[in-house]
User: Which sequence fits this backbone?
């Protein structure tokens, strides 16, 4: 991903492109595979992979601004942890209970034949299949 694309992603999220935010955006979006992370795990990954020091509040605010701008999806795992996903397309997940890892499932690989009717006054926004794994 080019620097201009990183800067545009930050600006479209309402963020000033500081050195720390550019580093966070590069780490999240300049990659071949998508990434699932918590704010805490992202902090640890950034410490290992970059020479920049990050305040946890900067990471938190940047991640939530990216989510609000539609650049990240937020996934809650059974009220335990909140993960963020750089894959914002419609898809599903495996959750490995042993490693706490989320793994993408292509939406085309899940076939749903029947859905219940939404309660009165409500519409189904989306469907997310979550498959729990264990050893």
Assistant:
């Amino acid at each position: 991903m080019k620097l201009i694309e990183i800067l545009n992603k930050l600006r479209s999220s309402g963020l000033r492109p500081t050195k720390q935010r550019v580093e966070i955006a590069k780490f999240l979006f300049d990659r071949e595979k998508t990434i699932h992370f918590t704010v805490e795990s992202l902090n640890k990954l950034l410490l290992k992979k970059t020479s920049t020091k990050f305040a946890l509040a900067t990471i938190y605010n940047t991640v939530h601004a990216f989510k609000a701008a539609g650049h990240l999806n937020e996934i809650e795992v059974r009220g335990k942890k909140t993960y963020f996903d750089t894959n914002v397309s419609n898809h599903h997940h495996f959750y490995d209970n042993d490693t706490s890892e989320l793994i993408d499932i292509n939406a085309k690989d899940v076939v749903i034949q029947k859905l219940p009717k939404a309660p009165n006054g409500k519409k189904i926004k989306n469907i997310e299949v979550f498959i729990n794994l264990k050893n």
About this structure: The radius of gyration is 17 Å.
